[in-house]
Amino acid sequence: MALLPYFFPLFSSFLLVWLFLPLINRWAVSKGLVDVPYGRKIHIRPIPLTGGITIYGCFLLLIRLWVPPDSLLWSLVIGGGGLVAIGVLDDWYKSQQRELSPLPKLLAQLGVSLLAFLLGIRFQSISYPWNDEGMIQFPLGISFILTLLWITAFINMFNFMDGADGLASGVSLISLLTMMVIAVALDQHELALMAVLFIGAIAAFLRYNFHPAQAFLGDAGSMLLGYVVAVTSLSGMMKGPTLFTLLATLLIVGLPLVDMVQVMVRRWRRGTPLYRADKNHLHHLLFQAGLSHRQVVLVLYLCGLFFSILSLYMFFAYLI
């Protein structure tokens, strides 16, 4: 696999975030865009909510240098921008110790999912790995529903994971690195380039986001990263998928998927609204078991790496 063409995009995005995040943090503090510790919060001082703005801004600045325009690029530019906008609004509400209604966020998530679908980033068919002629071609309506469910689920999975310093950013970094390796193996050069721009930006952001955090992703950042993983997977691995590629893709996001499912089941059993925040996420359970902040995050990183290694093994053993 030729990785040299990806070095300069990776270095450029890393350097931009590394240099400009302290300036953006100061701007956020001056505007009051900070996460104030109250209620469920586990940090003890206000933290700037700058991850989404910084990572998305870095991507916008660099795409003209490295990435040719296509449907995936436009979905990330327009859809990502929409999620960052509604996420910043939600983050500002939280900085005022208020809560934005879940409805605007849900409508934004459905809107960006619709955008991706209209741009051709969608489920179209699925084939059986044991039978080359066995294929299910999805009707347009089924394709639309599956695409919306896939993208909104990914957005919320990563949003749910954003409850400990460095957790959502680190898990998304692992997922995108895995997808980049697969994209390079499949000669999907443009997709790999877009993944690399986000990988460099997230890696630099993690320097400020790891415990003790100096910056948070905020809803703007966690929803953006979930959307990036969702649409890049649909545009790459899930283009004409088999059941094996579907499973391999789900393994890439195995950790946030397990977290979301177990939280939804707990809320359903207790009869509480599925959108109501609580302390039943995996990182909360590990905190309750007595692990330190860094230990919790490192344990979950290892779980994420385990799922990604399984995905890569399945991909290279059965799909290439």
Structural account:
- This protein has helices spanning 7-31, 51-66, 71-95, 102-118, 140-161, 167-185, 189-209, 218-235, 243-252, 254-270, 282-288, 293-319, and strands at residues 34-35, 47-48, 125-128, 131-137.
- The model has no long low-confidence stretch (mean pLDDT 89).
- A hairpin with a 2-residue loop joins strand 3 and strand 4.
- It is mainly alpha-helical.
- The radius of gyration is 19 Å and the shape is globular.
- Helix content is 70%, strand content 5%.
- Strands 1-2 form a two-stranded antiparallel sheet. Strands 3-4 form a two-stranded antiparallel ribbon.
How would you sum up this structure in a few lines?
This protein is mainly alpha-helical and 320 residues long. The chain has helices spanning 7-31, 51-66, 71-95, 102-118, 140-161, 167-185, 189-209, 218-235, 243-252, 254-270, 282-288, 293-319; strands at residues 34-35, 47-48, 125-128, 131-137. Helix 4 (102-118) packs across helix 5 (140-161).
